[in-house]
Amino acid sequence: MNEVEQKMAKSLVSIFENVLVAEEKSLRQGYFNNLSLAEMHTLDAIGPYESRTMTETAQILGITVGTLTVSVDRLVKKGFIERKRDEIDKRIVRISLTRDGKLAARLHGKFHKVLATRVLEPYSEEEKALLLSLVEDVEKYMKTQVARYEDKDKLRQTAREVAEDSRRRQTDG
Amino acid sequence: MDDKGDPRERIEEKKDQIYEDLLKIITEELGVSPMDINPTLEVREDLCFDSLQLYEFVVDVEDAYDIRIPDEEIDKVRTIQDLVDMVYALTEKDDDALYTDN
User: Fold this and answer.
1) Would you kindly state where each structural domain of chain A is located, as residue ranges?
2) Chain A residues closer than 8 Å to B63 by CB
3) Nearest neighbour of B52 by CB, restricted to A31, A99, A102
4) From B74, which residue of chain A is nearest by alpha-carbon distance?
């Protein structure tokens, strides 16, 4: 690894860790300190104006409906989310933010915007556009990495199933 | 064609109504008398809205008028009159969208 690559690796990890720490700290010191960062991101995924199904929300967050159910139960108890039956199809349950949920999501969204404003502040319009396009490239690359690991997980699962089938056939035979 | 009277009068009436509504929400949220409020007061300086109070107000106004107020619009607001103008513009935008849809 050359010097530039070393510095880049260090900076990427540091940015990731510090964004998380800053988000956690802003939550702990803010008005909604009874919310965890994961819970705040669940509120973000639902959005202040939407009423979403559990499946939709789980897809946005990239988690299973089972995991989301645990989080939503907790957020309903804390008063940030409400569950309602769909007005047309009563079999469908929709989740949306309560007034407190909307407030928390709006204030947290503001934190993200202030972060971006402060990072971009020292640069000219041209430099901002360049920085944004470079950061978007990094983001795109990270998404392909995540997709690769997900594919590998699926591949391992298939391999395990094939191995189990094969063992079962040998035992039966 | 125009069955709603003088358009300027209609705009003023609607803005007056919005001012009355906002006044109710502000006095309730801050616990102040309506007599202490006037359109030239600055939201952050004179009313001393902190960020939570400001967003509580925004969420309530969004709910009352069924509109969405983006952060960029909130940042532009200085006085109560600015708030009235912003709410008016956003409700008109929604009305225009309704007409376009029909």
Assistant:
1) 3-122, 127-173
2) 99
3) A31
4) A110
| ipTM score assigned to the predicted complex | 0.70
Asked whether the beta carbons of A97 and A48 are under 8 A apart, the reply is: yes
DSSP one-letter code for A33: T
- pLDDT tens column, A75-107: 999 999 999 998 888 888 899 999 999 999 998
Pairing mode, if any, of strands A93-97 and A81-85?
antiparallel
- Chain B residues whose CB is inside 8 A of the A103 CB are 52, 55-56, 59
Total-model pTM = 0.73
The dotted CATH code for A3-122 is 1.10.10.10
What is the rounded (10 degree) CA torsion for B53, B54, B60, B65?
Answer: 170
- Dist CA A146 CA A142 (whole Å): 6
Chain A positions touching chain B (beta carbons under 8 Å): 31, 48-49, 99, 102-103, 106-107, 109-110, 113
Strand positions, DSSP E, chain A: 51-53, 81-85, 93-97
